């Protein structure tokens, strides 16, 4: 499929630019994709961010170079994008567990992070229902946190944020400001090169947030949305559908992620129930 070829082209581009600065927007262009869509697709397919992958590949190549040559540590650090021996040594030790100067020691163990490859796996064991919805822009009031994508921390931080909001009165206070009983979990503001995004627990509302509440007001723009129904207990059912959207649905369709927020819609009821119903709304455009 075209998306496999485009992802391979992006990986080729990354490998060809290991020794020079590279922007995620340029990588995304190689894949004929928007920056946002490429970052989200890459993270959902690999479990790591683009920046994290580049960092691990560069440190693998740097270790190999130090082990088999007499290249100075400083020269290797500069070659692979580090401004100082100190920052290089810190990153190197995190991956390999030793200082760069120890890479030449006889019998030393080094970690090798190989180049990844993408393969299409057509499971076909479970239908993926969705509908396309045109929706005008709307205003929400909510509470936000910064969520890290590194090492899958987002799958831990978001459920913890919901649990805290449900116990400290945040969810109840937001429902009083909302126009219905539904709550939203909005993913937004993932900027180029960053390994984090903003997550907002919110309700659709035309009311002003009380000044003392710590809540924010956010405008969700008008967009075309792919809406995916979710049935099952939180957070597992929600996390599963997110992965399937990017691993199965996007590659199998002619849609691409539009540069707009994503959100989860939670209906009234018991989120721990096996028949609990919620939705994922993804902004899309037809390629």
TrEMBL record:
The family database entries (Gene3D superfamilies) matched by this protein are listed as: Homeodomain-like, Regulatory factor, effector binding domain
The answer to keyword 4Fe-4S applying to this record is: no
The UniProt keyword set, sorted, is: DNA-binding, Transcription, Transcription regulation
User: Any idea where the HTH araC/xylS-type domain is?
Assistant: 8-106
Do the record's keywords include Transcription? yes
Name the InterPro entries for this protein: AraC_E-bd, Cass2, Homeodomain-like_sf, HTH_AraC, HTH_AraC-typ_CS, MarA-like, Reg_factor_effector_dom_sf, Tscrpt_reg_AraC-type_HTH
Protein name, UniProt field: AraC family transcriptional regulator
